[in-house]
Amino acid sequence: MRRFIGLLALLLFLPLSDCSHYRPLRPGEHFADVNGVRLSYVVQGKGPVLVVQAPGWGLGSAYLRNGLEPLTDNFTMVFYDTRGSGRSTRPADESRMSTSQMVEDLEQLRRHWDLQSIRLLGHSQGGSIALEYAIRYADRVSKLVLVDTSVEPWSEFQDEIKKNVDSRRGDPRFASAISEMGRDTPWTTDEEFRAGLDRLAPLYFYDPEQYVPRFAKTRSRSQSLWVWRTFNAAEEKTPLNEVARLGGVMATALVITGRQDFCCGPAVAEKIRSGIPHSKLIVFDQCGHLPWIEASTEFFREVNQFLGTN
Known about the structure:
Number of helices: 12
Number of strands: 8
Order of helices and strands: HEEEHEHEHEHHHHHEHEHH
Distance between the termini: 55 Å
Mean pLDDT: 93
Largest sheet: 8 strands, mixed
Strand order of the largest sheet: 1-2-4-3-5-6-7-8
CATH superfamily: Alpha/Beta hydrolase fold, catalytic domain
CATH topology: Rossmann fold
CATH class: Alpha Beta
Helix content: 40-55%
Shape: globular
Number of domains: 1
Oligomer: single chain
Structural class: alpha/beta
CATH architecture: 3-Layer(aba) Sandwich
Radius of gyration: 21 Å
């Protein structure tokens, strides 16, 4: 009888022991409760940790998780959906959907992961979140990779973007995208929003006929018009000036862009590089907004070399 009671006690104790040894960076999908939302993140690969920052306007992290898969050979990759996107929940207060708030989410995730500092890679508007994080929490970023990144205030680059769009007028490959950019009526449903994103996609590539189908296979179809609207409204109320504060980045940075990226191309990338003390700029020719697709061999070589595995 005493032996039976002892065995029962052991069995009752084991689940508690397993819970106490929860590993937040083990492979698979996880959830973390931070700042009033539940954030979904996925861990893949092996080696030093590399955190990947997705855009905050609703695209989610699936396209990065699928597109950057080759990096899992050398790094433990952590991909997370920003608040409201993918499998992450929405905040009760719609004003808490800004880049500034998402920076604080990343800091709470870093603490949840129990990491003293992080290697951080951001793409597009996700690069802006990563950049603001590297300014605000400078001692928490060891290396920073900014891929075709936007930087605030974005208004500084509107003339450059217009020039790049105008240069594509008359090219039938971009006709539907340019028409979508100039539409007079706003999107009203998630379906219209997703269809609009599909029509805009060619503008983000040097060779859309070859590479848009590849991109379509990597992105999810869960984009929400609510996230798009609330994110942009929150950004207007809490603007950032990253350009004036780039000198605050302590991390060594690699800035990457495609020469034919119409929105985050060489002009934007050079502005970022010139402001970060320890930074290097790489521009890929015949490449748009997603260099891991249009310049994959060169992209992965440069990123692996810069980040190292130590």
